[in-house]
Hints:
Blueprint: E1 4-17, E2 20-33, E3 37-41, H1 48-55, E4 63-68, E5 71-72, H2 78-87, E6 89-92, H3 104-114, H4 119-132, H5 148-160, E7 166-170, H6 178-193, E8 197-202, H7 205-208, E9 213-218, E10 221-223
Helix pairs in contact: 3-4, 3-5, 4-5, 5-6
Amino acid sequence: MNDIFFQMRKIVKQYPLGDEVSTVLRDVDLDVQEGEYLSVLGPSGSGKSTLMNIIGCLDLPTSGEYILRGQSVEELDEMELAHIRRREIGFIFQNSQMLKRMDALKNVELPLIYAGVSPRERARRAEEMLVKVGLQDRLHHFPNQLSGGQQQRVAIARALVTRPSLLLADEPTGALDQSTGKQIMALFSELNADGHTIIMITHDINIAKHAKRVVNIIDGVLSEPKGEVTFA
């Protein structure tokens, strides 16, 4: 049996809204094991991106407990949280967010610059990741020379280059056509088979079904669907 990667217990997230308080997450309980491929499925405004930000240590819950690799995240200072984001978590967003003046190789190298990796090692690891995502013949292509799907593959390589324990993907196929989206989902399945823990945030039921496990989130309430995956 795989080890528990993280646990969430009674997670609540609230934001001030004038004189009122808006509750975005309501008593969320979630366990994720090492090597899992989980999809969080919900409509716009359901709280799924807020949940992703907390999982990714970009935000802290208002109350509840988030235990990551046996450590309570609420007890960590900002430097320790930044270290986790830099070393443990790879982020993939709807848009590839490639820097236009850098080729694919340089874009993938960026996280390693912040990590203090030497130029030679940066280039080696960036090339290794681009080969892994099938872009070995696009190393020196700039964003305007790449298709949307190829740009998203660069984003995935960039997320992988720090060798993170967890990949967090927020609507990773949202800007892609259906055919290209299927290719990216096939790549995610390959990465999961290689041992990567993946959590994917999506509003698309058909995309969610590519994961091995699906949870629903509606109005900040998380639940495991019984039978067919649905918002209802």
